[in-house]
Specification:
The chain is α/β, with parallel strands linked by helices. Helices cover 23% and strands 24% of the residues. A five-stranded mixed β-sheet has the order 4-2-3-5-8. The protein has a three-stranded antiparallel β-sheet with strand order 1-7-6. 34% of the residues are buried. The model has no long low-confidence stretch (mean pLDDT 93).
Length: 160
């Protein structure tokens, strides 16, 4: 019998290259499901599961925010955190073009370009958080500090 080889995502390859430990979870899914549905499918506590949102500032730059699945991004706090006058969510149709990922599989690790990334400070209170693994059906659990290191992020209060 041959052993089924795990298919690595760019996010996993980045973490492996940096020798940062993580756990990988998979789930069956045909279409987009939100973070709450993913947490429920995997039986994970909602407060540990984080989503990745992409915005565009009034300055034309893209900014990435990682926050708890049940939280809302406070656009004013988010803009302040990155030094922009304002930020707005990018249209869903632009996610792949901007990040290289599709909706539901977007993660702060391994985007097409390195965008300024902010992880909500609530992550610091968790020993580990769970984020998208870089494709639908894949989640990664890791220490918040390791996500910060691997994505070049900073921590700030960005939720309302």
């Amino acid at each position: 019998m041959s052993k089924k080889k795990e298919i690595k995502t760019n996010a996993m390859r980045i973490l492996d290259g940096l020798k940062l430990p993580y756990s990988h979870y998979t789930y069956e899914c045909e279409t987009f499901v939100d973070g709450i549905q993913v947490a429920d499918l995997l039986g994970l506590p909602h407060e540990k599961v984080y989503k990745t949102l992409v915005t565009r500032g009034n300055d034309g730059n893209y900014y990435v925010f990682v926050l708890p699945i049940e939280a809302e991004l406070d656009l004013k706090k988010a803009a302040r955190a990155v030094g922009a006058k304002s930020v707005a969510m990018i249209p869903v149709k632009d996610i792949n073009q901007v990040t290289g990922y599709i909706r539901g599989g977007c993660t702060a690790l391994g985007m097409k370009k390195q965008y300024r990334t902010v992880i909500d400070e609530s992550a610091r209170r968790q020993p580990s958080i769970i984020v998208s693994g870089g494709r639908i059906g894949s989640q990664i659990e890791l220490e918040p500090e390791h996500l910060r290191q691997a994505s070049g992020a900073e921590f700030a209060d960005v939720t309302g």
